[in-house]
Every structure is written in C-alpha cells, then in structure tokens.
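Worked example 2:
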Amino acid sequence: MAAWLDALAAAEGDNQPAVLVTVLAAKGSTPREAGAKMVVSADGLAGTIGGGNLEYQCEAAARDLLASGGEGPSTRDFPLGPSLGQCCGGHVTVLFEVLRPPKLQIALFGAGHVGTALVRLLADLPCRVQWIDPRPEALPANLPSNVIPVRTAQPAQTIAGLPSGSVVLVMTHDHQLDFDIVVAALRRPDLRAVGLIGSDTKRARFLSRLARQGIPTDKLICPIGLPGIEGKEPAVVALSVAAQIMQLNVSLPTTERSIAPMPKTERSCGDCVCPPVTTQGRR
C-alpha cells in the first residue's frame, strides 16, 4: 500500500484531521506527474509530490488549513520557476482536500439485534461509530468504513477515551453491564447524551440506583428513540434511535439539545421485557 494511503488510514483510525494533497495537473517539466499524492497530518508527512520548494510550500499550506479549521477542497497554481526557487520550468495545479473526522461521534455498546440494525442505518450517516461488545463472536468481521469494532472485557472502561461531545448508546446483553456503562458515561459531563434502551420499569430502577450514588441524570435518555415510531421489531427500534441521534445533531448549542427522557413507551426495550437486573438476554 502507498505511504499516503497508510497515513490516511492511520489519521482516520486515530480520529485526527489530515489534508490530502494531489497534483491535479502538470504541464511541461515537473518533478511529479498528475495524480501524485501526499498526506499532511499532525504526525507528519507521507508520500511526495516531488520534493523541493513546491512540496515545502504545499505542506505549509496544508498545515495552515489544519490550524485554521479550513474546510472543503481548494486548488493552487505553482509555476516552477525562479519565484518558487525551482528551475523545472513547468507548471502544476495542486488540489488540497481537508479530511476531518465527523462531528457526530457515537459509542454504541451492544451487538445484539437492535445494535446490529442500528449500525446498518448509521453506515450511511455522517458519523463515526465505535461499536463495543465484550463477546468476541458478537461483532462481525466486515463493517462499514465509519464503524470501528472494539472487543473488550471491560466495556465501561472505554468511556474514558471517548472524544468530547460523543453520544453514548447503551443496549448490551446484560442489565448490570448497562448500568456500569451508564454510570461511567454520566460521570463525564462533556459527553453530549447517554441513551439507554429499556422500558419505563428499567428507567425507574436505573434512576433510583443512580440517585443513591449521587450521579446526575440530566443527560440520560431512557427509553431511547423518537416517540411516535411504533413497533418492537429491532429494525423499527433502530430507526427510531437513529432519528433521535440525528435530531441531537442539529446546529443548536449542546445545552439546548433535547436530551430529556422521552414520553412513556414500552417498546423501546427491543426483545426483552426488563426482568431483574441480572437477567441475560440478547438485544
């Protein structure tokens, strides 16, 4: 694989911005042909568009775009003459593409029926999803490019490493595990919202336990999902959750977003009916 491709994949995996620099057109004598690429990121530079002062200036321009919050593609023309300190005599047009992580970051805990259906919907939406489950066999091998599988025996511990502003969705196979994840998430005030699948009975039990521990619940959404979308089928529940996530992503200040508990509904628990906290069941 080309070095620039490796660098691009690494930046995406690390949730970091990068600039893809491409020689769009080359006329006359030039150090590289059209299509030559390099990637500029916080980790450095990978690939080459020909070296020399041309590459130096393009790297500097790319870093300016990263630092200034630049968005979208842009082009610049470079005559390879004395003004650039090069004597090739040709002319190149360079394309700068700023690639930033999606602003909507989601941590999805649970690879049951609803979680799997939800991932299918999120695959085509402008978001990045960390899909977390402690069961090695639960997460499929082939996933959409915006979905990162995380297999860990301690899912709640991954909360500490989530980007600020993330939306946490909790729908694991175990109610106690759900509770541990919710506790860890609610202890991070910089997270946007914490959505919990479950019935009103489950919500009441969780709120009681959280209150005893003195944990704020203002960002807890339970039952999760937009009201008015009826049905207990996993795909229907997933659709309602995805719609609510996108509603959270509207351009309002975080403190004004709708993160209050939803009106009463008994269909939000997927295929479980919320028996005692220790009960196991695939969602």
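Residues 53 and 84 are 6 Å apart (CA to CA). DSSP finds six helices and eleven strands in the chain.
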